[in-house]
Design goal:
With 313 residues, the chain is mainly alpha-helical. It contains 13 helices and no strands. Helix 9 packs antiparallel against helix 10. The chain is globular.
């Protein structure tokens, strides 16, 4: 059964540099003013391209988004240089899109390149450097190189615990990601312990209905399911689905993700009628919101066909 990743958010808005012209306008030469205007035009064009790429990604038009991001990266390199923050953020966004397309080896390569530059320029403990290590770990996880992914997540977590503390939201995000990698590695008991700890802290700090709290409950359910504790997992999935519908509305992508996960849990228990109903709801929702070509919609469509085949006498 194909799993949909629960929490690997890597996309970042580009924080493009604002150029500050300090001298008085009357003292500037025509050449200087023209240069500033050209820079502003480049920045505006890059902002527009990033919005366009983000919209394409949200709609599941990943091939188009990749092409747009490659153009952005090329422009940033020419205008700012290969070590500029905007260039590196653009490359990180490209890596995230490559990962969504399933091009994990390319995503790994991009993330490693960005990480190397950030370590050189910013140092090993800078937040952007740690983000790159997190993104690299995510790519390794998708490549099923789980031991490497766990090592990277543990390294990031050690720094965040020391610098930010155990209750910082970034620290909790890292513990969550580590737990998903441990689960993939087959270390289900340790993964469950981590997910329960993160869930308890998120409930206290963010509230029971916060998106990240619900993501933790969703991830806990996945670990329980991996251990064959389907009844417990089903209860968690139903709770998450109900709360997401209350908070987000019936047509939010996270609601359809919960339908997808609940359907897999029901299928594992041979509750095929309800599993098919939930999976069809997920498929229809993903197709309307993300497009039929989006990986989520494709996974759901494949699952519908599988469940239908299981129901045949």
């Amino acid at each position: 059964m194909k799993k949909i990743r629960l929490y690997l958010a890597c996309w970042l808005p580009v924080l493009l540099v604002c150029f500050n012209v300090k001298s008085e306008a009357q003292e500037q030469s025509v050449k200087d003013r023209t240069a500033v205007q050209n820079q502003e035009q480049v920045l505006l064009a890059l902002h527009q391209q990033h919005r366009k790429a983000a919209d394409m990604t949200a709609q599941g038009r990943l091939t188009e988004a990749e092409a747009e991001l490659r153009q952005i990266v090329s422009t940033c390199r020419q205008v700012f240089g290969k070590k500029h923050p905007d260039t590196l953020i653009s490359r990180s966004n490209l890596a995230a899109t490559l990962a969504e397309e399933g091009k994990y080896a390319e995503a790994e390569k991009e993330n490693r390149a960005v990480l190397a530059i950030r370590q050189e320029v910013l140092g090993a403990e800078h937040p952007d450097t740690l983000l790159s290590r997190n993104n690299l770990a995510a790519a390794l996880q998708e490549l099923e190189r789980h031991a490497e992914a766990v090592r990277e997540y543990r390294a990031v977590l050690a720094v965040r615990l020391r610098v930010l503390g155990a209750e910082h939201l970034d620290t909790l995000d890292c513990r969550n990601n580590l737990a998903t990698a441990l689960n993939d590695q087959g270390k289900h008991a340790e993964a469950e312990k981590e997910h329960r700890a993160v869930l308890a802290l998120r409930e206290r700090l963010l509230g029971a209905k916060h998106a990240k709290t619900l993501a933790s409950r969703n991830n806990l359910a996945a670990v329980l399911q991996e251990q064959g504790r389907h009844a417990e997992a089903e209860r968690e999935h139903r709770t998450v689905l109900e709360l997401r519908q209350q908070v987000l509305g019936a047509r939010h992508p996270d609601v359809f993700l919960s339908c997808f996960n609940l359907a897999l849990c029901l299928e594992a228990q041979s509750k095929l009628d309800e599993a098919l109903s939930c999976m069809r709801r997920a498929q229809t929702g993903f197709q309307k919101l993300l497009g039929a070509n989006h990986p989520h919609a494709q996974f759901a469509a494949e699952s519908v066909q599988r469940i239908e085949a299981e129901m045949k006498p």
